[in-house]
Write a structure and sequence with these properties.
Length: 324
């Protein structure tokens, strides 16, 4: 075991956690994040384990700390400065304030849908200014956490707008059209803002996945080189070559960004791609040459058939990653 009680936390902060130091019943010293609260763990000179949690549930014993909390924070190290900021009553540096969506009081106060629409635009302008301040690109995990929080705030604003729209629609169905005209643009604006934020995260996630694949390729190449070198040395000594190493081929972990009220992550989905429009159309309509409108219609029909598990000529199901 390392004499440096902070060894695991330091390695995790550097992006290369030394998991050999993780042992059951021995939560590692360091500073960590658990949603919107910070956790500090350290050893006194006598080796006793101490801890503090900035809010909410606080384990009473080391066993409770290890079993009920450390496993959830072991992969979420934060800097000491970040820990102190939260400990002293501040917010995490990636925090994004949820604007006040309470309508004003009085006859001249703006209606709630205008209040939310203005707040959406103001928050989106804030996100643009922040993006510009970091060079216009999501380049680090910290950036991804921040834009994920923006996406979460936009999502909450969209939810608030949608809830209010439904509440106003419920009592008077005959006024449905008027309600839709008031709130449709608001929810659309929130959705566009949310998509804007998630697209920025998606670009980061795609790069991160590519980086992980490159690292895996380098790792496999190094294993192959070591195996070939071992076989050569065995041949020089007249010995039998060693067997190839047994390893598990694990897919790269998809990037995730935990945010204030939820999370944003790279996911996969199946996308229908028309690989042979003529074969697809012949399957459904036997028309030649196929009009563009019919190709679009056949693509929709083929999508339903493929998703139902049917084999359809001219269609291919592909997976793509996206921010959700």
């Amino acid at each position: 075991m390392s004499d440096n009680q902070w060894a695991y936390w330091q390695s995790a902060l550097a992006g290369n956690p030394n998991r050999d130091l993780i042992q059951k019943g021995n939560p590692q010293s360091g500073y960590y994040r658990d949603k919107n609260r910070a956790v500090g763990i350290w050893r006194n000179a006598d080796g006793s384990i101490k801890w503090t949690v900035t809010s909410g549930y606080r384990p009473a014993t080391v066993d409770e700390l290890d079993e009920n909390l450390f496993g959830f924070i072991v992969n979420r190290p934060i800097t000491y400065e970040e820990f102190r900021r939260v400990l002293e009553g501040g917010k995490f540096s990636d925090h994004v304030d949820m604007p006040d969506l309470t309508p004003g009081i009085g006859h001249n106060a703006a209606p709630l849908h205008e209040v939310i629409a203005e707040q959406i635009e103001a928050k989106r302008a804030e996100a643009r200014a922040w993006l510009e301040s970091i060079g216009g690109e999501i380049a680090t995990k910290e950036h991804a956490e921040k834009i994920g929080n923006y996406a979460n705030v936009f999502s909450q604003m969209e939810k608030k707008a949608e809830e209010q729209r439904k509440a106003e629609k419920q009592p008077l169905d005959e006024q449905v059209k008027a309600v839709q005209e008031r709130w449709g643009p608001v929810t659309k604006a929130a959705d566009e803002a949310k998509r804007y934020a998630k697209k920025l995260y998606e670009a980061f996630g795609q790069k991160e996945l590519a980086r992980q694949r490159e690292e895996e390729a380098r790792r496999r190449a190094e294993l192959q080189r070591q195996q070939e070198e071992a076989a050569r040395l065995a041949q020089d000594r007249g010995e039998a070559p060693p067997p190839p190493p047994v390893e598990l081929a694990l897919p790269p972990a998809k990037p995730k960004a935990s945010v204030g009220g939820g999370k944003i992550a790279m996911r996969t989905r199946k996308v229908v791609v028309v690989t042979d429009p003529r074969a697809l159309l012949e399957h459904f309509a036997r028309l030649d040459p196929p009009p563009v409108e019919l190709v679009e219609l056949a693509s929709k029909i083929g999508k339903k058939a493929a998703e139902a598990g049917l084999s359809v000529p001219g269609l291919e199901l592909k997976e793509e990653t996206y921010a959700a």
